[in-house]
């Protein structure tokens, strides 16, 4: 079992509040976030961006391991995740995460690739965590 941690601190409340995120690894250290980084274009991060990074990374790693297990030893995978935050039921909800993958896997059959990619989409831990629609579009070079 692996446990990872992160800390959020928020000073002030509502739109005027200012937050900072720090991760256990130190990759994020007092990274600024707040209302304007989430709902406008102010520099900083936000929870949805971090979820998108986690989903893209998780799916890509899951597919990489599936390809290795299937006997493929080289190639590249690049995934973009677009996480959608919408108003719903009087609040906000993450309603979907759209994965877009560009892949190069020498020697793989398109049907086999599609099968492995779909399994990785369903099986990655972040996909399992999401209470939202998860889609996958891909281009196999």
UniProtKB/TrEMBL annotation:
GO MF terms listed in the record are: peroxidase activity
The domain of life for this entry's organism is: Bacteria
Q: Which Pfam families match?
A: OsmC
Q: What is this protein called?
A: OsmC family peroxiredoxin
User: Which GO biological-process labels does this protein carry?
Assistant: response to oxidative stress
InterPro entries hit by this protein? KH_dom-like_a/b (IPR015946), OsmC/Ohr_fam (IPR003718), OsmC/Ohrsf (IPR036102), OsmC_Ohr_Peroxiredoxin (IPR052707), Peroxiredoxin_OsmC (IPR019904)
Which species is this record about? Sphingomonas turrisvirgatae
């Amino acid at each position: 079992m692996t446990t990872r941690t992160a800390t959020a601190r928020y000073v002030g409340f509502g739109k005027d509040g200012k937050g900072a995120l720090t991760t256990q690894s130190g990759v994020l250290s007092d990274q600024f976030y707040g209302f304007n980084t989430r709902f406008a274009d102010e520099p900083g991060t936000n929870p949805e961006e971090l979820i998108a990074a986690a989903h893209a990374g998780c799916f890509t790693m899951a597919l990489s391991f599936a390809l290795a297990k299937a006997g493929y030893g080289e190639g590249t995978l690049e995934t973009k995740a677009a996480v959608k935050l919408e108003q719903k039921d009087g609040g906000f909800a993450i309603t979907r995460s759209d994965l877009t993958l560009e892949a190069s896997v020498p020697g793989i059959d398109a049907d086999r690739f599609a099968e492995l990619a779909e399994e990785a989409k369903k099986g990655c831990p972040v996909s399992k965590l999401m209470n939202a629609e998860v889609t996958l579009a891909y281009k196999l070079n």
